[in-house]
């Protein structure tokens, strides 16, 4: 097994200059698609799949990507809350139907 020092860097890591994305702890949620000449990179968000959501960010900052993750978490939280409310309403309806059925049997 190779040590960390012996590992061959991926092509994106071979580029010159600082790339904040590569050392960012949340980069696993994105796939590096393109390093634009100069200061920008293009990434695809894995959390948005199956939709293809390509995002552009500066090589020196992950602020755009961080904002995207926060927005995605907010959207998913709202969706989960709405789903929970709908399930609760369904469960209440089911319970009322069961109670009505039991009442009719007696």
Are there runs of 5+ residues with pLDDT below 50, and where? 1-16
Kindly estimate the percentage of residues that lie in beta strands according to DSSP.
Answer: 15-25%
Instruction: Provide mean pLDDT, rounded.
Output: 75
Spatial arrangement of strands, main beta sheet: 1-2-3
Characterize the main sheet: 3 strands, antiparallel
Structure, described:
This is BED-type domain-containing protein. Mean pLDDT is 75; it is low at 1-16. A 3-stranded antiparallel β-sheet has the order 1-2-3, covered by helices on one side. The protein has one domain. The protein has helices at residues 20-23, 63-105; strands at residues 30-35, 40-45, 54-58. The termini are far apart. The protein is built from 2 helices and 3 strands, in the order H-E-E-E-H. By secondary structure, the chain is of the alpha+beta class.
SSE inventory with pairings:
Blueprint: H1 20-23, E1 30-35, E2 40-45, E3 54-58, H2 63-105
Antiparallel strand pairs: 1-2, 2-3
In short:
The protein is an alpha+beta fold and 106 residues long.
Name its key features:
106 residues, alpha+beta, three-stranded antiparallel beta sheet, 2 helices, 3 strands, 44% helix, 16% strand, disordered N terminus, BED-type domain-containing protein
């Amino acid at each position: 097994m190779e040590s960390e020092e012996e590992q061959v860097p991926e092509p994106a890591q071979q580029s010159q200059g600082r790339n904040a994305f590569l050392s960012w702890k949340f980069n696993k949620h994105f796939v590096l698609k393109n390093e634009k000449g100069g200061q920008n990179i293009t990434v695809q968000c894995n959390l948005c799949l199956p939709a293809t959501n390509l995002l552009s960010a500066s090589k020196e900052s992950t602020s755009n990507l961080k904002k995207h993750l926060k927005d995605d978490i907010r959207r998913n939280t709202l969706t989960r809350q709405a789903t929970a409310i709908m399930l609760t309403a369904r469960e209440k309806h089911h319970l009322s139907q069961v109670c009505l059925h039991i009442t009719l049997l007696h």
